[in-house]
């Protein structure tokens, strides 16, 4: 019976694991880069955006340190991959995504890649207000603007490529239900095993 209980535990654990899904958007594609340097002490817009994003996550990141860690760009500015690798090395797990306006409202800040003419440019956006349709666009070192998400997505500069914090894995409602049922069934099986063992001991 003990073996049966163990098998039940393994079986329901596997089922619950399949029902636990990461709440992560689809990965962004394309070699998004920044091809401009902002006037903030000569730092690239990628370094300024990444430093600001880190501060919004509660990290005291200095643009000069971020720029130093990014190192020289590998072409027309720093790439999204470089920003993600640098953030990961500095202790913040990020990933590239393709922002879908239909999936809004946003749950947190993002580094957004814009296309300004032939040059790429990184800015930071974060949700504001209670409607779920407004974002604050932060373009270090000075520009700040609040606008509607739909307006931003209709902009000719919009690419949809962005960088966000990698979310923790969260359980779906079905995953929680199956996990709960597994614990109940295993508990019942264990009680029955204990009762049968006790009866065998009384008759021996």
Protein described:
- The strands form two sheets. Strands 2-7-3-4-5-6 form a six-stranded antiparallel β-sheet.
- The chain has a single domain (25-167), classed as Cathepsin B, Chain A.
- Helices cover 42% and strands 24% of the residues.
- Mean pLDDT is 74; it is low at 9-30, 35-39 and 169-179.
- It has helices spanning 2-19, 45-56, 63-70, 80-89, 149-154, 173-203; strands at residues 20-22, 94-98, 110-116, 119-128, 134-139, 143-148, 158-165, 169-171.
- The protein contains six helices and eight strands; from the N terminus they run H-E-H-H-H-E-E-E-E-E-H-E-E-H.
- Helix 1 runs antiparallel to helix 6 and helix 2 (45-56) crosses helix 3.
- It starts with a helix and ends with a helix.
- By secondary structure, the chain is of the alpha+beta class.
At a glance:
Keywords: Membrane, Transmembrane, Transmembrane helix. The protein has about 200 residues and is of the alpha+beta class.
